[in-house]
Amino acid sequence: MPMNEPATPAERYAAAKLISADAGTEFGAFKQGFDFGLDPFQIEACRALAAGRGVLVAAPTGAGKTIVGEFAVHLALAQGNKAFYTTPIKALSNQKYQELAHKYGAKNVGLLTGDTSINSEAPVVVMTTEVLRNMLYADSDTLSGLAFVIMDEVHYLADRFRGAVWEEVIIHLPAEVAVVSLSATVSNAEEFGAWLGTVRGDTAVVVSEHRPVPLWQHVMVQRDIVDLFATNKSFDEIAAELGPGTDATGRFKVNPELLKLARSESGRPHRGSYGSRPGRRDRRDGRYGGQGASAFASDGGMVKRASRPQVIRALDSRELLPAITFIFSRAACDAAVQQCAAAGLWLTTPAERAEIADRVDSACAELPDSDREVLGYWAWRDGLLRGLAAHHAGMLPSFKEVVESLFADGLVRAVFATETLALGINMPARTVVLEKLEKFNGEAHVGITAGEYTQLTGRAGRRGIDVEGHAVVLWQPGTDPTAVAGLASRRSYPLNSSFRPTYNMSINLVAQFGRRRTREILESSFAQFQADRSVVDLARQVRRREESLAGYEKAMACHLGDFNEYAKLRRELSDHESGASRAKAKQRRARVAESLATLRPGDVIMVPAGPNPGPAVVLEADPQAREPRPGILTANKELRRLGIHELEGPALPLARVRIGKGFNPKLPKDRRNLAQQLLDAVAGGGTLPPDRTASFSRQPSAHADDEAIDTLRRALRAHPCHGCPDREEHARWAERWWKLRRETDGLVRAINQRTNTIAKTFDRVTELLAAYGFVERDDAGELRPSADGQRLRRVYGEKDLLIALALRDGAFADLDAAELAAFATTVVFTAKRDDGGARPRMPSISLETSVESVVRLWSVLEDAEETHRLPLTAEPELGLVWPMYKWARARSLQDALKGTDMAAGDFVRWTKQVVDLLDQLAKVPGMERGFSRLCIEAIQRIRRGVVAYTTVVD
Fold first, then answer.
1. Which CA distances in Å does 248 have to 233, 245, 260, 482?
2. Radius of gyration of the chain (CA)
3. Residue 592, Cβ density class (10 Å: 0-12 exposed, 13-18 middle, ≥19 buried)
4. 201-213 pLDDT, tens per residue?
5. Chain-wide mean pLDDT for the chain?
6. CA 644 to CA 599: how far, in whole Å?
């Protein structure tokens, strides 16, 4: 979409002057390749790049940040240099490779993604960020002539699992390489840019809040789409007025009809959810207003969420397709396609169906017939013919690529996707639908963040096609429109580093720079930069508090003596008295708990407090619990459990009654009869129980505490300040002094903890590596990698040290190619959930031996990591051993996955990671002869069929 034309003669003159300034430059030549004008932020960033500066561009999804990256590619080619384009995921690397190869020619563009290598010495190479990190540590010849590195989705450095790789690359790239960092909009872009300036040199920070296609927020109430905000301006327009990083929540008024609906639902029992997003009544014709939310609230009932077919039909009738519906479940994405198909939905014409069929059949022509059933090929193809598709990590990569291609061309109009689609894949839609605003994070269901919401809804609105984009959240019982509005309008989410030294990183840095220089390098990380900035603020707070403390000391000064000393005595006395009180309460609680544990069915006790105080009979004992809660029946026939908090002292049985074997507490008659027995026993007709008080813990003598308290009281009375007429006034100032002193000391501790935190972690890592013999001191006393350490340098992954230990221990020896591939899964695969079952039997004795070895090594390593206060290495996983072994033995995909719940796409993804590890192991130095060939043979055995089929080819 072309940018707005200058409105005044002065603006037109300024614009013409800038255009003439670009004439004859590389930027001018680059601009001529587009049939639309560039946006101001793109022009600013490109000019900074042309001037030799690094660039950080922070802009919304779909704003066109990649144009700046493409200009870096243009400059590299024009200057005869190289440019590397890095991405966080292989799918995005594949997509970007195809785009650049189409634009600049296949001979000029290469691809490197761990398991794929195409034209790696080309002047422009697209790669995952990990590949570039590995190149830097290996000092690869491919780095020769590198002038530009484009880091797409650089905000990914906040990822707690992989984010550190981005910082490693930024820190270790040669100084002459210009870095182009492309980020989503974050609230601390200036801070990130300042750090880039310290480690990369002059860096321009270009921030844009402007979305080229305005985004409107909607809520779908049953089958109608209504407004979230009662305003005629989109969020983007208001955010642009407020400026970058401003929280615009207060500038939006929530649609009163939605608030009325929420109030009508309140008070009714329901399973609440975080909330949904409303929709805007169209400013021109009320197209999205529907009958209004209040129509659903008239009877005070609960409004059910619209079904998936209803949602798609509603969007289709309002011309809001194509749409991406985000569902945080792979199975639910597949089910959504099936539900829409079962409902008879067809979003395509016969001509479009014919084209889809041709393209699908052509793309999958080489897919083995034997694998089509297990891949769900026919159901997937039927959905595509209808214009419907799922998109998630469990799908075959080539299936996802077909979906992306058909969706981009408008042939697929409704995609049901997990959040992974939002990670940079160029797949915009007119509308984005969010079924829920909560997701499972592996441990619990949590609400999505403002940053996640923006990332997801950023897919709405296709530049050059749509006038506006639409975000729709489905209303369901428990929706809070105010919470939804706050989430939708918030733009204050910072980029925080997840950097920490790993074993591989540490040993590579020690090998290249030595320990002292490595500590300096690590202290230049963004993590330490942020910690240092926070330390500056903490230090400022400490200085202010120290000034206040000095004032408090003056205020509490006493002419009779040292009031600070007197105040200390008062505090010690207070602490002793509080401690004695707590000890007595703890003893009382322990005696009550012991008494409850000794109660037996039939015991009659008196309950002094609680809902129904009075006599009760014990029905169920609870002797094993840490806090016993025996079941009782009260005199008014209530069944409940008795808690410690209801008793002031030990529960001593007053009498006993006999509870018949046929007693059923669920029967009113039985409860009534037993309650009468209880009352009779209390009146004196019951059997007296044996005395159990002898078994209770006796409270230890409080003589020592009392003596200390008496001593302090005497010292207090004898102190000169005790007789001061202003004593209590001084004491109030002293109390303030002590409280502020405690807070200040806490801040000082925080400063000490944050100072050199990364370097301190590195020290602990090297201590552990030294204990294992991976680093040793040379003749000059400097730390250097040992022979085992040299092998660790070439192993990249979350279990890098465990793999190196297994290599040294011979766990990879005595295996054939199929066994080697299967064993490699134990240090690569991560199960989605803990199956909690027994360890499976291994396919061979050799594999069994190797697995026992690596599990033993891991157990010892975990203990060492705990001792050195380091993050724990995950336990080896055995869930992929059998499928990989069968696959390496040339079994069919169906046979390989038989007996597992693993999706074919997941199997392909994990197999590629195994290929990546085996490729690393083939290059590890100092291994026995034949090991490298065995690794290559194992790769050849598993890189076949659907695994080889899904690899990008030139």
1. 13, 9, 23, 14
2. 35
3. buried
4. 899 999 888 778 8
5. 81
6. 13
